[in-house]
Amino acid sequence: MAHVRGHEEQTFNEFYTEVKEIEKRDSVLTSKQQIERLLRPGATYFNLNPFEVLQLDSDTPLELIKKKYRSLSILVHPDKNPDNLERAQQAFEIISKAYKTLENEATRKKCLEVYEEAKDRTDMMIAEKKKKLKKEGKHDGVPEDDPPKYKHAVYVMVMKLFADIERRRQQLEVRDMEERKRKREAEIDEEEQRDLQKEWQKNFEESRQSRVNSWHTFQAGSSTSSSSAAAAASASATSASAVPVKSKKSKKAKYTSFNPPKIKPETR
Q1: Which single residue of 104, 177, 254, 265 has CA 20 to 30 Å from 49?
Q2: Higher per-residue confidence, 252 vs 154
């Protein structure tokens, strides 16, 4: 991991040196050169720093920032570059965004805080290097003791801090987007549940009369069956009562009225 980080830092340093040499060679870049500077490979990394976009030091006053913005915006404006319209538009938007960031007092303050933190971290890094050299018995100093190299070290740290800020912003944006998506899915689910409940209630109300009629029909059928059963029971009882029953009294009267035969006298 350390080897990879070292390689990345070396690549960045080489790229930085190349860019600065170009800027020194032609401090007032042409329209084409400005567009290429702002849209070169890897420019997104550099364009996170509005001071870098406008080619200004962090201690530049607002009036000079406005002047530099006007001159650059004229150079890269699409109307001035009809043969390179699309790229000119992209470069113009990058410059406009950088100026709006520095024009606003709150966002400019945040950018300056990044520079302050970069200086603090660079100073800590230099102190650690010197401490390590002292333990090893070396007192030759460090490369950052040279002002241009110190400025370069601070610049590198500034770029890294801006990159970290952008990375965190993107992570928060993704997290926020996922949270909004989750909430929206929950809202859709709740809406579907409410719609199903409304549909069920509607069907329930529409079928109410049908259920009432069915109940009345059932009740009427039950009443008819009960009446028929009662009538049948009554008829059975009537038939049973119509059959004559011989009482004990009648039998007794019959036997009481029996007259035995008279005995005739015997003849010889």
Answers
A1: 177
A2: 154
Q: Give the orientation angle of helix 105-135 with respect to helix 147-206, to 10 degrees.
A: 130
Write out the two tokens for 156: 């590198």
Using one digit for the tens of pLDDT, what is the confidence trace for 154-180? Answer: 999 999 999 999 999 999 989 888 888
Q: What is the pLDDT of residues 102-143, one digit of tens each?
A: 999 999 999 999 999 999 999 999 999 998 888 888 877 888
Structure tokens belonging to residue 150: 């110190």
- Show the tokens assigned to 215: 């109940």
Phi, psi of 187 (to 5 degrees): -65, -40
The two structure tokens encoding residue 189: 């689910």
Q: Is the four-CA dihedral 160, 164, 166, 170 of positive or negative sign?
A: positive
What are the Cα distances from residue 150, in Å, to 18, 23, 48, 55?
A: 18, 19, 21, 19
What is the CA 58 to chain-centroid distance, rounded? Answer: 38
Q: Beta-carbon neighbour count of residue 105 at 10 Å? A: 8
Burial class of residue 165 (count of CB atoms within 10 Å of its CB; 0-12, 13-18, 19+): middle
Token representation of residue 7:
């390689």
d(CA 191, CA 243): 77
**Secondary structure class of 20 (helix, strand, coil):** helix
**Token pair listed for 185:** 């899915």
Amino acid at 178: E
Q: Between vectors from CA 25 to CA 22 and to CA 30, what angle results, nearest 5°?
A: 75
Inform me whether the pLDDT recorded for 201 exceeds 80.
Answer: yes
> Tens digits of per-residue pLDDT, 15-72?
556 555 555 544 567 999 999 999 998 888 899 999 999 999 999 999 999 999 999 9
